[in-house]
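Researcher: I'm preparing a figure for a lab meeting and need a structural model of a single chain. I don't have an experimental structure, so a prediction will have to do for now. The sequence is pasted below. Please return the structure as tokens so I can convert it later.
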Amino acid sequence: MSDFFSQSKASQVSRLWLAIPRILLGVILIATWFENLNKGLYTADGFRGFMYYLAEGHPLGFYAGFLTNVIAPLAGVFGSGQMIVELLMGLALLVGAFTPLFGLGSILFFFNLFLAYLNPNLGEWIWTYVMLITLAVIVTFGRAGRSLGVDMSLLKRFGENKLPLW
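Model: Understood. Here is the structure written out token by token.
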């Protein structure tokens, strides 16, 4: 169990560099959450429409089918779930709480966005999602919450956990 403030100056600086992408991902998720909330994308109608928008002309037939045949019919459930999970991931990454858990969630979340925006009809620059996935991997496996985050306090109080929760 290491205390951030008892580490060497070089080690502290190295750990601080992990806090920056963690906080950035948190801000991105929270900003996106507010934008989606204002657009009405978390409502059943808004979420359903967005799923059809993503699926139209998608080059991966299995993915388009999944969006239209599984997600869209249950848009109310998935829209509400998306609203809660996206906000929780953003807040957890922002404050560095349970970073391995929420970091893994963000890897899967950004990978799903990568798949969704493989659709050339949408005009998205796909490398944005590759960079977000890469940052999420660094944050998750670098235990970035232990640098200026709640995870640092959890580590000091409870020590290492058998499950990588902090």
